[in-house]
Specification:
- With 746 residues, this protein is α/β, with parallel strands linked by helices.
- Helix content is 55%, strand content 10%.
- It contains 26 helices and 14 strands.
- The strands form 3 sheets. The chain has an 8-stranded mixed sheet with strand order 7-14-13-8-12-9-11-10, with helices on both faces. Strands 2-3-1-6 form a 4-stranded antiparallel sheet.
- A hairpin with a 5-residue loop joins strand 2 and strand 3 (147-154).
- Helix 2 (31-38) crosses helix 13.
């Protein structure tokens, strides 16, 4: 049942608030669903009322019957010139025009003039039947086809079909008369247009021929291309070819000049000629000289094998070999210079050729420019003549196609479906009406539920607390019976240790032990936003729970305006904290021992004239410091935050503050303002306790951090321990089976 006596020593290992056992808020669950479920009666009532109104509307609405005729209108209006009507009216515009024509005044009046139509019950009492027919007639074009639908709703199914068929007949008659007059008028227009076009054609032909005769260069423009253009192409090709040869000759001259002037390149040139890779010009004596040089070199090597280098024969051969080599070198030099001269002459010849071709090319290009201007003018005249010729031919074709005696009487209107009386009413649609009524009722109900929930600022769920205040929930105390006396409710942990409420107070005690570091929860203030939130019973039961865990606990009744702790523990009030502060009683004499081991109480004493000043005095702070050295925990029952400033004063001088709110009573705005007021004075708010939670409210109890589902029982049984305080005698029931005894005072 209780924590070990050394539980406080383990607290120091934790540096922040811990999750409370049995309280693991499911933030993923949408709060809107909670609101709708809480207001489900309003939503259901709105849906029922909406369905009833829909049913009344169905019973009071006259059923209407719809008759429909479908037509296919092929566009066959006589054309003046082929293609011109496509530029003026598109197919979609044409069909939309026909749809509008059905609802025109001439066709509506013609339909009403048919036998028996004006006498129908649909038009009974109508002063303007034409306007009424145009208003109720519906004409539309298919979304995926070009079918025109003509329909009408009427309380009389036979009359609806009769009226639709009369409108369709009037439209067909109107179209026939219109087409006959249109064809004759088109024929007259075509004949006048033909005479004008023929005059334009003759004038265009004369202008084209006269221009061709006055410009001789046009004779060179053939059907497959201009003769001058072909010559221009040949000159261009020749110019490109000679320019390529000129580049090659220039490179050859440059290379030959560098060979003659550069000794290194000249020696390579000579070596290549000796090895047989001859370059440039060749001389007949070159071979002879090379052969003599080779023969003399061979003889010199053979003689040196038999004679010394100073032998006269060796000297003679060396002299002769040197002479032959010099002759060969002179010959090679002359050949290189001859090659350079030949390359230079070839380069000059190519330059002259390139200049001549370029001159011819420029001359031909100028002639082409002159010819192009004449050709452009001639092409424009020829285009005007051809356009006039095509227009005349098109008019001739249309005149031949139009046959006034046959084509004008042909109507391209096909009636695909004749209107017939409907077998069932088309409106009102009962299924749709009831479905809409159900949907409207649902939407109105949801809107009312959300609006009422928005206007209702009371706390209805644990999510309301966490979302509004942003503080952890230390515990949720179930609602106790209002028939219980104050002392019974204030000592439920002692009197009913196996009840759900007692277990909840022990859960709050555990949250305090493990929610803050060791030694930082000695002085605890318990307050609430408004009176009647249950802070007094929370202080008394929490003090009993802490004392049962072996912690020396003192309860100080700090509510001078409405003290209640002395009534819960049935002690006298005259000796209390106010007596100590004014010096009338010593501190030890004002502290009362309760029947709960390790639990003492310090009542208020006589009500002072200035409670706030007394609590804010240095003497009261000194008393708290002295008591904190004697007790493990000091619980202070504080007045509410909103009416007076006492709670703010106590919160500023104590270690921790616990805020108590009452389910279905406390207002979220007041709770938020209370937290703000405590924060403004630097109070450390440990968490929130929700008091008086209805036992059947799922939105409070469905929290499953460690499996504490209080509304389904915890498994301790139902044995109770009572104390008959009224008679002064005591009745104790022993520990239930499996229940741990309390720990002795440290």
């Amino acid at each position: 049942m209780g924590e070990p006596a050394n539980a406080g020593s383990a607290i120091g290992r934790f540096e922040g608030p811990l999750p409370v056992q049995g309280i693991s808020a499911d933030h993923g669950r949408p709060s809107l669903l909670h609101t709708l479920w809480r207001r489900r009666v309003i939503i259901a009532a709105a849906m029922v009322i909406s369905l009833a109104l829909g049913w009344l509307q169905l019973n009071n609405t006259t059923p209407l019957y719809t008759s429909t005729s479908r037509l296919y209108v092929e566009r066959s209006t006589p054309k003046i010139i082929p293609g011109t009507e496509e530029l003026t009216f598109g197919p979609w515009n044409y069909l939309n025009t026909q749809c509008a024509l059905f609802k025109s005044t001439p066709i509506a009046a013609s339909a009403l003039d048919r036998p028996g139509i004006r006498d129908l019950r649909t038009f009974a009492g109508m002063t303007n039947p034409v306007g009424y027919l145009k208003a109720i007639l519906r004409v539309g074009l298919g979304k995926d086809d070009d079918i025109i639908s003509v329909s009408l709703e009427s309380p009389y199914p036979e009359e609806a079909a009769q009226i639709v068929n009369a409108v369709v007949d009037a439209y067909v008659t109107y179209q026939g008369a219109s087409r006959r007059s249109t064809a004759a008028e088109v024929l007259r227009i075509l004949q006048r247009e033909k005479a004008r076009r023929e005059t334009e054609l003759a004038a265009a032909l004369k202008a084209m021929t006269d221009y061709q005769k006055s410009n001789d260069l046009l004779a060179f423009q053939g059907s497959d291309g201009s003769f001058m253009s072909k010559r221009m192409e040949s000159y261009s090709s020749a110019l490109i070819a000679v320019q390529n040869e000129l580049l090659d000759a220039l490179a050859d001259v440059q290379a030959t000049r560098e060979t003659v002037e550069d000794p290194t390149r000249f020696r390579r040139f000579v070596e290549l000629r000796r090895l047989g890779g001859r370059e440039g010009l060749a001389a007949p004596e070159e071979g002879v000289l090379r052969a003599d040089v080779a023969r003399l070199e061979l003889q010199l090597r053979e003689m040196k094998l038999e004679c010394t280098d100073t032998h006269p024969g060796v000297a003679a051969l060396e002299k002769k070999l040197a002479e032959q080599r010099q002759r060969l070198a002179d010959l090679e030099k002359r050949l290189a210079e001859a090659q350079l001269l030949a390359a230079s002459r070839r380069l000059e010849a190519l330059k002259e050729k390139e200049a001549q071709i370029r001159k011819s090319f420029e001359s031909q290009r100028q002639e082409m420019v002159d010819l192009n201007a004449q050709v452009a003018q001639f092409t424009r005249l020829r285009s005007e003549w051809e356009q006039a010729k095509r227009a005349c031919e098109a008019i001739d074709d249309r005149i031949r196609q139009i046959n006034v005696n046959e084509d004008t009487g042909l109507l391209n209107i096909t009636i695909l479906e004749v209107a017939t009386p409907a077998g069932a009413p088309s409106s009102p649609n009962r299924q749709r009406t009831m479905a809409m009524a159900l949907l409207v009722g649902l939407m109105v109900g949801i809107g009312l539920a959300v609006a009422l929930d928005w206007m209702d600022q009371r706390i209805h769920s644990a999510d309301d607390v966490t979302n509004t205040l942003g503080l952890p929930i230390l515990g949720m105390i179930p609602q106790m019976s209002a028939k219980q006396e104050l002392s019974d409710r204030g000592q439920v942990v002692e009197l009913e240790p196996t009840s759900h409420a007692a277990e909840t107070y022990r859960t709050i005690r555990t949250a305090i032990y493990f929610g803050v570091p060791n030694g930082q929860a000695r002085k605890i203030v318990v307050t609430s936003p408004e009176p009647g939130d249950g802070k007094t019973t929370l202080v008394s039961n929490l003090g009993i729970a802490m004392a049962q865990a072996g912690q020396r606990t003192l309860i100080i009744d700090g509510d001078f305006r409405k003290p209640m702790q002395h009534r819960i523990f049935k002690v006298e009030r005259e000796r209390g904290i106010s007596s100590v502060l004014v010096g009338r009683e010593p501190l030890d004499a004002a502290i009362h021992h309760t029947e709960v081991k390790c639990l003492d109480i310090l009542p208020t004493g006589p009500t002072p004239p200035n409670p706030s000043e007394m609590l804010n005095s240095p003497a009261f702070a000194d008393v708290l410091d002295q008591l904190s050295t004697q007790y493990d925990h000091i619980l202070i029952d504080s007045p509410p935050v909103m009416p007076v400033t006492d709670a703010r004063i106590l919160g500023a001088i104590c270690d921790q503050t616990i805020l108590t709110v009452r389910a279905e009573k406390s207002h979220r705005k007041f709770a938020e303002r209370a937290c703000q007021g405590l924060n403004d004075v630097g109070a450390h708010i440990l968490g929130v306790v929700i008091n008086a939670v209805p036992r059947k409210e799922d939105r409070y109890y469905h929290y499953s951090g460690y499996g504490y589902y209080y509304k389904h029982g915890y498994g301790y049984g139902h044995e109770r321990r009572r104390r008959k305080t009224a008679r002064g005698d005591k009745e104790h029931v022993g520990n239930p089976e499996g229940q741990l005894p309390t720990v002795s005072q440290r």
